[in-house]
Design goal:
alpha+beta, seven-stranded mixed beta sheet
């Protein structure tokens, strides 16, 4: 199987919408207006993955000045309601990962890894400090009656539990730096909860950046 990752174009919008409906059936899909806005403000940050010419995955991102936000900021505010018009390359050093999706029919075949590899390469090309994102706790609904999202996240980090989203992202080199409880309000799997994750660009990160990341207690 050969996976190709390339920039998103308007011809991909229908496929991206279809993937969104398959992954998030309870939520509104990306709209053509949102996807067009992404390409207009930050074309380098919008990617699709193809197999034999068929779009099977996508990644969407923007650059933000992290000081404008906080660890508990929700997805809508980080993305200006999904339009990315808050994209701030002049001041920002953080690539914010707004979305990575792979169609359910081809998950587990390395497509997500290809998208994350290209996203990290983008950060390195642009000389940015890091990638940050909200990793929705997609398995949390199974144990929500037994533990708080913070405990669930810590158990995933230590390997005691496995989460379909967060466990994968940890394998991609991300570290958890917090938990946002109102990140995705209408997501029935995470019940709105997300782990805030970070990948640091070793070419520009300082010891202070690593120390700040490692402050989050997973014990």
């Amino acid at each position: 199987m050969s996976v190709t990752v390339r920039p998103m174009t308007p011809a991909d919008f229908d496929a991206v919408v279809a993937i969104t409906r398959a992954i998030y059936p309870a939520s509104p899909p990306w709209s053509h207006a949102q996807l067009a806005s992404h390409i207009e403000v930050f074309p380098e940050g919008q990617l699709v993955a193809e197999i034999d010419g068929e779009v099977v995955g996508m990644a969407a991102s923007l650059i933000v000045l992290w000081d404008d936000y906080s660890l508990d900021t929700n997805w809508r505010d980080f993305t200006d309601h999904g339009m990315f018009t808050n994209h701030d390359p002049a001041r920002g050093r953080t690539l914010y990962g707004a979305e990575v999706m792979v169609h359910r029919e081809v998950q587990g075949q390395g497509i997500g890894k290809h998208l994350y590899t290209e996203r990290r390469a983008l950060v390195e090309r642009l000389g940015l400090l890091r990638v940050r994102a909200g990793a929705r706790l997609s398995g949390y609904h199974r144990v929500a009656g037994k533990m708080l999202p913070e405990e669930y996240t810590k158990r995933v980090v230590t390997g005691e539990l496995s989460d379909p989203t967060l466990s994968f992202q940890i394998k991609q080199g991300f570290h958890v730096i917090g938990v946002a409880r109102d990140y995705l309000r209408n997501d029935p799997e995470s019940l709105g909860n997300a782990a805030v994750i970070e990948w640091l660009n070793a070419a520009v990160a300082t010891p202070a950046d690593y120390a700040a990341r490692d402050k989050w207690d997973v014990g």
